[in-house]
Amino acid sequence: MIVKMPFMPVKFNLQKRVKLAQGLWMIYWLSVIVGILIFSLGIFFKIELRKRSEMMDSNESHLVPNLLILVGLMACGLNAFGGKVCHDSLDPMKFAKWKPMLRSYLLLCCGFNGLLLLTAVLCFLMQFAVYLTLAEGLKNSIKFYKDTDTPGRCFMKRTLDMTQIEFRCCGNNNFRDWFEVQWISNRYLDMSNDLVKDRVLSNVEGKYLMDSVPFSCCNPGSPRPCIQHHLTNNSAHYDYDHRIEELNIWTRGCREALFSYFSSMMNSIGMLILATIILEVRLHPQHTTMEDPENPECESDGWLLEKGVKETFGELFSKMKILGKKNQVDEGGDAEATT
Amino acid sequence: MVVMKMKFPFQKRVKLAQGLWLLSWCAAISGAITFSLGCILKTELRRRAEVMDNSDIHVVPNTLMIVGLASLGINYFASKICQDALDAGRFPRWKNMLKPYFAVSCFFTVLMLLAVIMSFAMKGSLESSLKVGLRNGIRFYKDTDTPGRCFQKQNIDRLQMDFHCCGNNDFRDWFEVQWISNRYLDFSSKEVKDRIKSNVDGRYLLDGVPFSCCNPSSPRPCIQFQLTNNSAHYNYDYQTEELNIYLRGCREALVHYYMGLMNAIGAGVLSVFLLQASVLVSLRFLQTSMEAVAGNENTEIETEGYLLEKPLKETIMEYIEPVMKFFLLTNQVEEGTPGAPAST
């Protein structure tokens, strides 16, 4: 006969139980604060995504911040409940009313930990999605820069200018992206001018292309006033060589700049969630000792799991099988999977 | 003639002590907030210190920091005193300390009020400091190779971009200064030679502004050169063009920003002042009502508390005289007895 041994048993007397309850109570409230932190980080991330949504073609996925907000709220609720139970656990009268709920509470916490793990994994993996959305979105932003008279795109110019100034970047990959688009609207081009006519005729699509960038690409740290036009023409400016000039305009592309900003944000949030998982997992073993305070003064046993690991998971799976079978035909005898 | 006499039965005294204890801790936290507000203001002023000619305005945040720290000490002692007040055995040890304590507390509370008044009154000084500082900043914009002025260009550019402003009074200030360094001018070019000869000082002046004056909200790409020449640009009239470059001057923008900050801080500190004053008044009432109990067997009798023992003028004279005596005596030769001014 196999004796069912509890997993990781520990002996507890009253003093130790009191100390444990107090320590647990502190950790629960610490977890509530961490839950609030995760919630506010989720809100912050959502706001940042919305601020830059024009750069991403309004196509960005809000899955991660929404999940963070949900997880933060759940963490607050679960840990506050846990703290209350902990507070009442040393008083047998109060504890009796919580006792029936404990098992389901612990199951819920396990599920919550799984959700936390999923969120952390998503934080790290969704960065690729952000990168791809940025690449596409910035390409379109540069294309629509000149359309300040088209409804729905009026503010693209301002948004892109402010982004380039704030993130100290120019263009999508680099400043040469501006050479391939017409970023000056036809409204401001004198079509009767020969120079303009030459430029427009010089390419197949009839676009007014030039080797210039908008003013927002200018680097204030340059010792000389900004050169934004005729960038590749050394003779157009005194004492200028476009191959060695470094400080004149920003050389970094906006996709790289924005991506590094978002990825550092997502990485730190992911780290915080991993730390939260470790904190939560530490809490649950301690909790089972609170389950049996019938004789308050005597020594009691505490354990991590009531049965061994294998048996607990076996029980869990069989319970889930029963639930699944209940959804099917519910007539006649229930095929009860017994453990 | 006693100022503001009030009767204090035992229960009222107990309530006063308890309320005062809570109030003094609130006032201590407010003192800490005042200190941090002073730190914030000082940091903000230091960020733009390069465009300010003098640091006279720094007296406001410095005073706030001193007052915040003093308030922490004052309120800590206030809470200790009111804790001991209801215990007849422990209260007498504070007897000697209370007079100087009240003098010091009143001084710092008045200083707090002065800081608030100064934050509103120093607008003129700030404005003149900015006027000179910005004028120099614009003049030295091109000197990126002169040690000590290398970063003027970057500072002015960032200032104009952050505060959405251009020039000192407005963008025309850039027309009067040579803001392109000679290092980047081709002196063999006819156009450059003409411009330099066109004015007495031999400066290269043009009707153009740096790129940092450009307004991103403009629907058209930024026009920074030949601003007053309508024919140089297609479909452009500089009299009616509003969104192209920032029209506001940087002095106005900075004064507006700092006055807004100081007004908000001033309003907060005013409420802290009222809180602190109420703490001191309550403490004075508690002290005087407890002093009447001293020596009595029955500590639960009703006593009278007052604010000032003598009228206001005489109390002030009483405090100032020792200070005056100290300063006057050090100047005179002391012989015989100095004519002691009588205070009734």
Describe the structure.
Chain A: Keywords: Cell adhesion, Disulfide bond, Glycoprotein, Membrane, Transmembrane, Transmembrane helix. Chain A: This is Peripherin-2. Chain A: Its main location: membrane. Chain A: Pfam families: Tetraspanin. The complex is a heterodimer of chains A (339) and B (344). With 339 residues, chain A is mostly helical. Helices cover 56% and strands 2% of the residues of chain A. Chain A has helices spanning 14-51, 63-88, 92-143, 156-167, 194-201, 254-287, 309-327; strands spanning 10-12, 300-302. In chain A, helix 1 (14-51) runs antiparallel to helix 6 (254-287), helix 2 (63-88) runs antiparallel to helix 3 (92-143) and helix 3 runs antiparallel to helix 6. Chain B has 344 residues and is an all-alpha fold. In chain B, 55% of the residues lie in helices and 2% in strands. Chain B has 8 helices and 2 strands; from the N terminus they run βαααααααβα. The longest helix of chain B has 44 residues, at 250-293. The A-B interface holds A 148-149, 154, 157-158, 161-162, 165, 183-185, 187-190, 193, 214-216, 218, 220-226, 228, 237-239 and B 144-145, 150, 153-154, 157-158, 161, 179-181, 183-186, 189, 210-212, 214, 216-222, 224, 233-235.
For the largest beta sheet of chain A, what order do the strands appear in spatially?
1-2
- Runs of chain B in which pLDDT lies below 50 for 5 or more consecutive residues are 336-344
Task: Please identify the structural class of chain B as seen in this structure.
Answer: mainly alpha
Number of helices of chain B: 8
In the sheet with the most strands of chain B, the strands line up as 1-2
Number of strands of chain B: 2
**Strand percentage of chain A:** under 5%
Specify the overall morphology of chain A. elongated
Greatest interface and its participating residue counts: A-B, 31 and 31 residues
Runs of chain A in which pLDDT lies below 50 for 5 or more consecutive residues are 292-304, 331-339
**Order of helix and strand elements from N to C terminus of chain B:** EHHHHHHHEH
Q: Give the fraction of residues assigned to helices of chain B.
A: 55-70%
Q: Hey, roughly how much beta strand do the residues of chain B contain?
A: under 5%
GO cellular component, one term (chain A): plasma membrane
Subcellular location (chain A): Membrane
Main location (chain A): membrane
GO biological process, one term (chain A): cell adhesion
